[in-house]
Amino acid sequence: xxxxxxxxxxxxxxxxxxxxxxxxxxxxxxxxxxxxxxxxxxxxxxxxxxxxxxxxxxxxxxxxxxxxxxxxxxxxxxxxxxxxxxxxxxxxxxxxxxxxxxxxxxxxxxxxxxxxxxxxxxxxxxxxxxxxxxxxxxxxxxxxxxxxxxxxxxxxxxxxxxxxxxxxxxxxxxxxxxxxxxxxxxxxxxxxxxxxxxxxxxxxxxxxxxxxxxxxxxxxxxxxxxxxxxxxxxxxxxxxxxxxxxxxxxxxxxxxxxxxxxxxxxxxxxxxxxxxxxxxxxxxxxxxxxxxxxxxxxxxxxxxxxxxxxxxxxxxxxxxxxxxxxxxxxxxxxxxxxxxxxxxx
Length: 345
Fold this sequence. Notes:
The protein has about 350 residues and is an alpha/beta fold. The protein has helices at about 10-20, 40-45, 60-65, 80-90, 105-115, 130-140, 150-165, 195, 210-220, 255-265, 315-330, and strands at about 1-5, 25-35, 70-75, 95, 125-130, 145, 170-180, 200, 230-235, 240-250, 270-275, 290-300, 305-310. It has two domains: about 1-125, Rossmann fold (3-Layer(aba) Sandwich); about 150-315, Dihydrodipicolinate Reductase, domain 2 (2-Layer Sandwich). The chain has a seven-stranded mixed β-sheet. The protein is globular, with a radius of gyration of 20 Å.
C-alpha cells in the first residue's frame, strides 16, 4: 500500500484527486494540505466526500510534510509549485506536479509565457506526463509534469497522424471549448454564473499559456518545429473539453488510411476511445471518466482533416491522468482506480 499526499487539496483538481484515490485499491491517502481550510475535514469542505475521505486538511510543509507520504501530487498554481517540489524531491519523494511549472523543457520559453523560474535545474529531469506518448519514461521518473487539459485533448488527437506523416505540420488550427471548472474554484468575475450562463466566448486569443506546451510536444513527435493557432473558448457547463482541430492532409491521404492509423496507434490504449466513422465525440459521453474520445472527418473539398477530441478537463485533463501517472510510477496496472464509466446524462 503506497502512501500518497495531495498538496493543495481544496481546489477542483484536489477534490477530484481525493475522489479517485479514496477508491484506489493500492494507495492510501495520508495527507492533504490546504491553507484556506486548515483544521477542517475534507468532507466538511466537500460534502461529496462524506464517509469516503475523512482526513483533516493541514498546513504542514517542509520535512514534516515529506514524512507523511511516499508520492505527492502538487495541485497548486504555477509559481507556487516550483517552491514546493524541490524540497519533496530532495527528501527522496516522487512528485506528480499538476501545475505548469515543469511542463516546458526550456526555461526561456517558460519565462516568456509565465514568469521567472526558480527551479530550472529540474526542467530537464521532469517527464511530460502523457502516458500514451511517454509511458516508458514516466515509469522510471521521480518528477512527472502532468499535462494541461487543453494540450491533452489536442496532442492525443494529432499524435498518430503527425507521427505517420499523414498531415502537414504547418497551418494547424485548434479551436477548443471548455467548461468553467477549468478556471479553478477561486472567485472570479469571469466565471460567475451570470457572466457565463447563456453565453459563449473566446478568451486568451493567440496568447493562451498552453500554446508552448502543445507546440513542444507536437514538434517532438514529428521532429521539426510546429507552430499552431490555438483559440480556447468558455462554454456554460461545469466540466468537459471539446477540441476541434484542422490540419492539411498530405496529398493522397485517404479516410481509410487515417482510420487505420488511429486504430493501430491506440489499439492497446485503455483510455483512448475511437468513435465509429461518421460519429463524433461529445463532452456528455466522457463526463467524470478518464477517457479521451476521438473522431474525425476528411474534408475532400478543402484537402483537410477535421479532428474532434473530447475529455473531462478534471479527469483525463488533470486528476485522472495524474492517477494514471501514479500507477506507472508505482508499477501498478495503469487503469487501477480509474475504470469508472462516464456519468450520463
